[in-house]
Amino acid sequence: MQTLTMKFGGTSVGSLEAIKNVIQITQREIGSGNRVVLVVSAMSGVTDTLLSSIQLALGGDKWGYLSVAEKLRERHHDTIKRLINAGDARDKLSATVNKLLDEYVELCHAISILGEATPRIRDAITAFGERLSARVIATALAQNGINAKPYDASEFVITDNNYQSALPLWDITEAKIREKLLPVIQSGITPVITGFIGATPDGAWTTLGRGGSDYSGAIFAAYTHSDELIIWTDVDGVMTTDPRIDKRARVLPYVSYQEVGELAYYGAKVLHPKTVQPILNLKMPLRVRNTFNPDHPGTLITSESQRSSTIIKAVTAIRSVSMLTVSGKGMIGVPGMAGRAFLATANAGANILMISQSSSEQSMCFVVTDDKAEAARMGVETEFRAEIAAQNVDSVEIMPDIVIVTVVGSGMRGTPGIAGRVFTVLGDEQINVLAIAQGSSECSISFIVNEHDLERAVTLLHDLALEAVPI
Ligand code: ASP
Ligand code: MG
Fold this sequence. Notes:
Blueprint: E1 3-8, H1 16-31, E2 35-40, H2 46-58, H3 62-83, H4 88-114, H5 119-143, E3 148-151, H6 170-186, E4 190-194, E5 197-199, E6 205-207, H7 213-223, E7 228-233, E8 254-256, H8 257-265, E9 286-290, E10 299-302, E11 314-327, H9 337-347, E12 354-357, E13 363-369, H10 370-383, H11 385-389, E14 397-408, H12 418-428, E15 433-438, E16 444-450, H13 454-466
Parallel strand pairs: 1-2, 1-7, 2-4, 3-4, 7-9, 8-10
Antiparallel strand pairs: 5-6, 9-10, 11-13, 11-14, 12-13, 14-16, 15-16
Helix pairs in contact: 2-3, 2-4, 2-5, 3-4, 3-5, 4-5, 9-10
The protein binds aspartic acid and magnesium ion (MG).
Aspartic acid (ASP) binds next to loops.
């Protein structure tokens, strides 16, 4: 008997058809003698809707957030009506859904009266999406002969109070799962747990960041000692590139933890970048599979990398980023310039996605998301105001309309010529490369090109990845 943790994403629980597939997939595993732990997202679009209602409440638009609440009520009740036969279980579920939504409306009133939404109340609001879906899914499974029960992850995942992007307190979380969840699983119950959510030690709701239910899945997989973590989503697996950019994109049968980490960080939407972290040392197999095509084996992600003949396995791109350049003669040989620039950027709330500096040290550049670019520029200029006044540092320049393109493949380590191949391809096609970075992990090469070159650059490099994937 194996224990499987299966996480179902928003689209996988977002419609009647999808939920029916979830039921079948779960029945199939239990039927073959496995124990299953389910971790679920909110129904697709619900988290966005909840976030938008916070804005409406802040603006005092009572009619606006009440109508959002009504839409959520309708959507969940409609799903319940079509999924679950009339009777006690359905009545009880409907009452629970109403109670949760009433609580949610109360919080919106509070925001609207105060005219302020603290990070803490924002998390309490976004948590409703998963709290609703877990209850619907558990009741639907129970109706289909599975001994399922819903659980709020706030009982198990104890986090710091860094709301909206909380980090688990590992020891307490492990102990809670051991004490409160393992006995449930051992007694033959199939828990249906809310993804995305945690709680501080004193019981305030927290969330793990957008897309964070993948991370939740990995946390539960790790501490329930699962044999495998399966992320059920709406694509067949991890792809060689974004099929919207190049429709020749194919599913990669195998990738390593490290490769998938780079892919997630550099723009592939399939997994939250933190997913691998809780299971990294356990070498637990991780699979990405399609709820709407359950016979497809998906992508198997393991600690070992499988070598591919072309080394390059996948190509990703990140849009909506800007490059900041700090330059000046007074930067040469002065220690601490990069540190100060990066700290100022962090203090401006901007996450740095890529860094490049030439060894002449006359300039360095780094990439942040568009929405943070201006704040980062102001932060760095303030930090260097003395140097700028003395003309040792020029003003900080922002270059908009650029993208980061990343090629990934762990076989780059120790294989000469990969970078050469990549840049030859781009050079032959007259695609100008504005900056380059390669980490010493040698698992990926990232570079900046103008936004209008994105599709050509990705497609040309994708040729290199495709050579290695069997059709
Ligand atoms: N519902 C949350 C979100 O949309 C978490 C998740 O689905 O992973 O971000
Ligand atoms: Mg997701």
